[in-house]
Amino acid sequence: MRLLLVLRDQLDRSAALFDDVDPDTDVVVMTENDRDRGRFREHKQRLALGFAAMRHFRDELREQGLTVAYETASPPETDRDSYHAAEASPVADALREKIREHGADEVVLTEPGRIGLLKEIEAVCDEEGVEFTVYADRHFLCTHEDFESWADGRKELTLEYFYREQRREYDILLTDEGDPVGGEWNFDSDNRESFGADGPGMIPDGPRFDRDDVTGKVLETVRRDFSSAPGDLDTFRWPVTPEQAKTALDDFIKNRLPMFGTYQDAMWTGRAFLYHSRLSAALNLKLLSPLTAVRAAEEAYHDGHAPIHAVEGFIRQILGWREFVRGVYWLYAPEYGHKNALDAAMDLPDLYWSGETQMRCLSECVGQVKEHAYTHHIPRLMVIGLFGMMAGIDPAQMNDWHEAYYVDAWEWVSQPNMIGMALYADGGIVGTKPYAASGKYISRQSNYCSHCRFDPAASTGDDACPFTTFYWDFLNRHQETFSGNRRMNFQLANVRRKSDDELEAIAEQAEHYRERLDEGEL
Ligand code: SF4
């Protein structure tokens, strides 16, 4: 008999492993104990979303006549500080037990989004002497083979070229002649507005889903058994079924897509969601097909409901960036997770969990993650990640934190985004330059600085903005590293214009701020 192993982020009824499922003999195995895999415990909303979505999926499979062996989550140990990930994944343990219990002779699964887990499962099957079949994950829009052949022989992996191929492959936003609709492939330059002094005003907030018995019980369990996990649970509102995910998509297309492009890089105090879709969590659990989301946005353009720059920006994130980072992950895994091109060694400061800091931007953005297990990509990349890169925080710890604290972060998507894009720890695989910026950038894109005790223009002195101090210190420390990168010429020329005395004062200020960070006083 066969065991069909379904992981927490593989809730896809159209996955290849179900193609020839035999309800009379096959058993689907699911375990909630695939959690807390890294150095840190997961956010309560991450756990609740995963468990609720899994239980709904389990019930759907059972209604369709399949047998599901389902393991609910065991409560964690209570002392967070003594927590360390087990050597072997609980998934491997659960699988071994089920192989023996059912006398299985074959294990079938969809390729996991974590290479280490794939190896563990393979090892268990070898040890137990059972056949092992792994199917490609057909949820994604670019196969490993296609990505490898696209990447083969290229000096640099440039998203833009990959994205154009994807547009052509799926015939998205193309004219009959095969040219890009609107005359350009990319409208990013139209997508950088900030809200100005008046702020964002009213924005339709997105659907809130009724909590049925299944979701209600999960929330109760997480509240009771996972009280030591980080983050808040009260604001939980994630879609937990494919139907809810479709409702969330429809709501976004109708109410927020038209303005999404213009303000996609903007931030505002107390407003975590703004015009963003928040579909990444449902996409990454496979509750929603990427092509459904892409086609819905394209239709909104053709119907005259949303402008090209909004639609193109949204489609690029899903058809381009999401597939691109997955390709990069599998091209470089497992080494990618250990990359540390800038030799960053600082331990993750506590403020990444608590949000308690005098820096208004970080307290606001980390506060959003605490409250919602989510921020949109700019706080993630250009506040939280940016600070980590410039201060010199260990990339592996930053990535573990991201995977634990964000509702949509899984290894395949987290590592290229955090280690690569945000921290430049991959030395330039996903980005051609580090996205270094001073407090002035944050001041332009948000209203955070107007409520902050620091001055975004100051790099030294009592009111020096730590972002601005670390910005100059970062460029100065890495002058040699970046000297061969033409895209860094402008920023490096500005550093070289500073006097030795000025650079020395900045280095001292940065050192002072590192000590304060270490003491939890910044
Ligand atoms: Fe952040 Fe600096 Fe602005 Fe304060 S002044 S909110 S620390 S960027």
UniProtKB/TrEMBL annotation:
Keywords: Lyase. Pfam families: DPRP. One of its GO terms (molecular function) is lyase activity. The keyword Lyase applies. It comes from the Bacteria. PANTHER family: SLR1343 PROTEIN. This is Cryptochrome/photolyase family protein. The lineage of its organism: Bacteria, Pseudomonadati, Rhodothermota, Rhodothermia, Rhodothermales.
